[in-house]
Each structure stands twice: as C-alpha cells, then as structure tokens.
Amino acid sequence: MMNQVSNQRDSMRLRYPDSLGERSNATTLAAALGGPVFVVDRVAAPRSRPGILLLDDDPFMLGVQSRMLLDMGYPKVSTAGSAEAAVRMLQREKQTFDVILCDLNMPGMDGIEFLQILNASSFGGNVILLSGEGVRIMHTVQKLLDGGRMVILGVLEKPAARAALRAMLDCWRPLIAAKPVGPALLFTELELHAANRERQWVLHYQPKVDLKSGELAGMEALVRWNHPEHGLVYPDSFIGMAEDCGAIDALTEWVLQEAMAQLARSHGQGLRIQMAINLSMENLRAPDFAARVGTLARDLGVSPQDVMLEITESRLMSPSPAPLESLVRLRMQRFGLSIDDFGTGHSSLAQLRDVPFTELKVDRGFVTGARHNQIIRPILEGSIGIAKRMGMRVVAEGVETEDDWHLLREIDCDLVQGWFIGRPMAEDEVPLWLEQWELRRPHLVES
Ligand code: C2E
Ligand code: MG
Ligand code: MG
Fold first, then answer.
1. Domain at 76, CATH number
2. How far is ligand 1, taken at its centre, from the CA of residue 222, in Å?
3. Are residues 203 and 300 in the same domain?
4. 236: Cβ below 6 Å to ligand 1?
5. pLDDT at 350
6. Nearest ligand, CA of residue 280?
7. Ligand 2: distance of its center to the CA of 241 in Å?
8. Which residue, of 122, 145, 180, is where some domain finishes?
9. Is 345 near ligand 1, meaning CB less than 6 Å away?
10. Which atom of ligand 1 is nearest to the CA of 277?
C-alpha cells in the first residue's frame, strides 16, 4: 500500500548555478534564484554540520556572531553585509548554504524582501531570523513566509545567546529537493458515501502518556481512508467534505464502534487506558447523538469515563442549541470532553466558558519548540494555568523533541502526545511501540 504522505526526507540538496553575474534588481533576482537554474544533486550522506550564511548590515554584529558560531564548532560560516550581496553569494558560491541567519532591518533590500524572494525561489534551506526588531515583529514575518518551501527554524533577538542558537541549529536538516506537489485530492460526495458503505476506513492509534510517570494513559484513534486508488488518505483531505455532504455521521459511527471495541480489547488484555475519539461538530446536531453513543458504549462493555471525546470546531457554531445539548448529555453520562486544538480557530476561551470540557488539549502550534520561543511559551503556560484553575486535565500535542518533553514537565502539564513519544500506528504495531517505550521511559522521568 502506498502512503500518500511520506515522512521520510531524502538526502538531496540543491546546487547553485555559478554564472548569474551581477544583476541586482529584485525581480531579476527572484527569477535568477528560481526554478530551472537549480539542479538537484543527490549526496551520499548529509553533512553533520550545516554551512551557515550570516546576513547583517552591521559589521560589528557580523564579527561577533561569526566568531561565536566558529567557537561553537560550526566550521563553515560565511558573512554578507547586505541582502544584495547575499543573493550574489547564493548565485555564485559552489558550496551550499544550509542555514541562513538573517537580519531584518537593512538599508536597500530589507530582510523581508530578501526572504520573500528566497521563498518564491527553489531555495529549500533553513532560515533563522536574527534581529533587533523584537520577537513579535519577527513572528509576524515568520507568518508572512509560511507556505513557502523554506523552513524557518525560529526567531532570535540579537545578539543571539549560544544555547538558543545551538538548539535551533540542532533542528537543521539537510536541504531537500523540490518535490513536485501533486494536486490536492478532491473527493466527491458519491465516493465518500461509497467509502462508508464499503467500510474503507482504518484507525491508527497515537499514544498519550502521563508526564510524571511516563506511563501510557491513553490512545487517540485517528481515522484514515484506505482508498482503493490513492492508498492511505489522511483525514485533512476528507473530513471537511464528509461534513459538507452528510457522510460524517456514518463515518463517526464506524469510528466510535471500532475505537470502543479496541478499548474493550485493550482492557481485556490488562491495559488500563483511555480511548480518545474525535467528533465533528456536525455529529452533535443530531438530537439522539448522545443517547446513541451511550448505548454503543454499554453494548461494548466500555465505561464512559474511559472515553475522551475530542471536539474541534472548525467553523462557527450555528445559533442552534443542538450541539451544546448533545455535549451536556454526553457529559452527564460521564464521557470525558476534550477541547482539541485549543488556541486555534474557534477552539477558544468562549468555548471553554460555554461547554463543560474536562480536558484541554493545547494545539501543537503552541507546543513544538516552545522552550526557546518567547511568543508561544507564555501562551502555552497561560493555557495550562487556565485549565488547572478550571479543574481540567491538560494535554499538549505536538511534542516532537526531548526538549519539548522536559519543558512540559517543568511547567506542570499532565499528558503529552507527539512524534517524540510515538507516531500514529496500526493496532498491531502498538505492542512493539509499548515495549520500546518502556525502555525509554525511565530515563525520561528521572529528575
Ligand atoms: P487532531 O485530533 O488534532 O490529531 C492530531 C494530528 O496531529 C494527527 O494528524 C496526528 O498525526 C498529528 N500529530 C501527532 N503528533 C504530532 C507531532 O508531534 N507533530 C506534528 N506535526 N503532528 C503531529 P492526522 O491523523 O492527520 O489528523 C488530523 C486531524 O483530523 C485530527 O487532528 C482531527 O481533527 C481530524 N480527525 C482525525 N480522525 C478523525 C475522526 O475519526 N473524526 C473526525 N471528525 N476528525 C478526525
Ligand atoms: Mg484530536
Ligand atoms: Mg489536535
């Protein structure tokens, strides 16, 4: 079976052409840096240390930061005193720059223009914004660049502290060649209804673990479409459409049935865990939804306390009180209710005020890399504080590194989920994951 989304990065890098002369207006440069002039070069093994280009109009800062980088053990550090010079270097140099440390406020072409040009080109390297403009401005610039191929490793105030710079440079990955992005998969109403009839769904499970003990606390069931033509299709490609065409009710019913049956099997094997199941707001409009979920749990011998229903609201709730009624009825039956992706979209303080949630799940956009991020860290800590004061359990999703893990322990989060702990996996992969996790766990919980 072919996976539509592959997490593997191959060891490819870009080689720059060396014959672009001294052209310096922005449009010409963008064209010069773009498409066909780049050739893809496969390397046998990625370099262990990135080649760094430091771009700043302040010669003193260039001197200080380049010496620091050399001291830190990065042997390949080049400097550019202007964005125009940096573009010329990118065109001319035979070596590849893996990471660009970029100032924002520069005379002539400023950092924003430089990065937008780079982002529109085939440059697939990594960038760290390093500026005296304050982290909030830099974050907005980071947002402006979202969606391009360039990877922004993070933002730092000048002069950058060693530890923070090292943490970001540790996240550097070798450049990858531009992969042709296929058109987004669009499914028709008919295909979704057929998928429901033919049960083309499959569940993968992602662990949620307790931060104090490291013990497995639960699993989140995540649906995939085992598509006869496209292979495994991920939910972001079809949940919205399923909601629009009414296929979401049968889909959710299948997920509830399958995930609760899995929970009963796990309990039967002595694994005392909770099962988290994602619900769509659309599901909650049916007046008998809560009663049906209750009946299903009873039939499968599952206790509602062991089921955590995760709710994300991707669109504004209609004035109808039906979804709120369903949520209250589910809670009265003792199902857990989790506000998923907290901090994004409509998953907000107003929802927290109006719905009797028992768990708050902080969106991964406020978790991954939070230790060195002065914008998201206060939001993460604030969300944890709000949840605690409201007597809710807090889960952080998007824990990708050991650094994320330790920060969350320090700031008193309850549970975590993310690639650092385990990716979503098929049912039969869980025992092996658990075995390996038990080996990693002791080292992660000693303090
Ligand atoms: P979600 O409920 O917030 O699920 C977490 C998503 O983040 C999953 O994507 C998971 O694979 C991904 N993820 C987990 N750990 C990490 C990490 O460390 N880093 C990063 N970058 N990502 C991580 P997935 O499986 O593609 O699901 C996407 C969304 O689709 C889910 O977000 C959920 O809102 C929705 N969804 C999944 N299954 C169902 C379902 O059965 N019913 C409904 N209505 N929605 C579902
Ligand atoms: Mg979820
Ligand atoms: Mg989420």
1. 3.40.50.2300
2. 6
3. yes
4. yes
5. 86
6. 1
7. 18
8. 180
9. no
10. 41
Output the pLDDT for position 173. Answer: 72
- Tokens 């206060």: give the residue: 378
| CA 340–ligand 3 middle distance (angstroms) | 5
Of all residues in the chain, the percent with pLDDT exceeding 70 is: 84
Could you list the residue range(s) of the whole structural domain that residue 73 is in?
12-180
**Pairing between strand 99-102 and 52-55?**
parallel
Residue 228 alpha carbon to ligand 3 centre in Å: 27
Reduce the secondary structure of 289-328 to three states and give it as a string.
Answer: HHHHHHHHHHHHCCCHHHEEEEEECCCCCCCCCHHHHHHH
153 with 233, same domain?
no
Residue 1 lies in a domain: no
Low-confidence ranges of the chain (pLDDT < 70): 1-47, 94-95, 149, 174-183, 314-319, 447
Which residue is it, tokens 């907000």?
348
Q: Is residue 2 part of a domain?
A: no
The pair of three-digit structure tokens given for residue 186, joined into one six-digit string: 């669009």
* Strand-strand pairing, 216-227 and 201-210: antiparallel
Q: How many domains does the chain have?
A: 2
Distance CA 302, CA 223 (A): 20
